[in-house]
Amino acid sequence: MLLALILAYLFPAEERVNLVFFAGRVLVYVLLVFWGVKFIATPMETNYVGAHFMHLINLPFHEAGHLVFSPFGRFMTVLGGSLGQLLMPLICAGAFLFYNQNAFGASVALWWFAESLMDLAPYINDARDLQLILLGGVTGQEVEGHDWEYLLTNVGWLKYDHTLAHAAYNIGALVMALAFLWGAYLLYRQFQNLDRD
Q1: Which of 66, 105, 114, 185 has its Cβ near the most Cβ atoms within 10 Å?
Q2: Number of folded domains that form the chain
Q3: Which helix (H) or strand (E) segment is 19 a member of?
Q4: Residue 140 is assigned to a structural domain of this protein
């Protein structure tokens, strides 16, 4: 019964799909696939994801995360930036899925979560090198370091920064591919129920 409920949310059966809405969804899907394949195919070390305008969309949620998690101590305040950046797309996915019953919108938000995770990877990768240009226009070496240098140092994992960064990037790429498959299946089902009158 629970599985049936979950499947009903993930793969809703729309009886009549408006042609204009469907065309808009197809356009969004094609753009996200084109863009996402470029993200996936580009090596993390180039920081292509971080140099794209989506980074500027993620950035306010990253900075807000520091504030939201500040009551929970220094470690959580620092980690809160990355959590905020990742939680916002997941909150949007949940709102699309459970509040709006819009599974396609949720698949787009899942794509955003994947992109956001891939966007964090170069930051994690820079924990030892501290060469990434930060928000203030300086590198971590020019100031006291940055979030991931602090986090990994505190848990004793600084030497694993490159490994963790590649894991984050690869998981992001896999989640993005999952978002592509989910979106494609939803569009296929919607195409079958197009309102052609």
Answers
A1: 114
A2: 1
A3: helix 19-41
A4: yes
Instruction: Quote the CA–CA distance of 65 and 82 in Å, as a whole number.
Output: 7
Which residue type sits at 83? L
What confidence tens digit (pLDDT) does each residue in 5-33 have? Answer: 888 889 987 778 888 999 999 999 999 99
Q: Please state the separation of Cα 157 from the chain's center in Å.
A: 24
- Domain-embedded: residue 10: no
Closest to 121 in 3D by CA, of 161, 175, 81, 160: 161
Q: Whole-model pTM?
A: 0.94
CA-to-CA separations, 18 to 11, 12, 23, 26, in angstroms, rounded: 17, 15, 9, 12
Determine, yes or no, domain membership for 6.
no
CB atoms within 10 A of CB 38: 12
**Which of these, 177, 185, 34, lies nearest to 117 by C-alpha position?**
177
For residue 194, give the 3-state DSSP assignment: strand
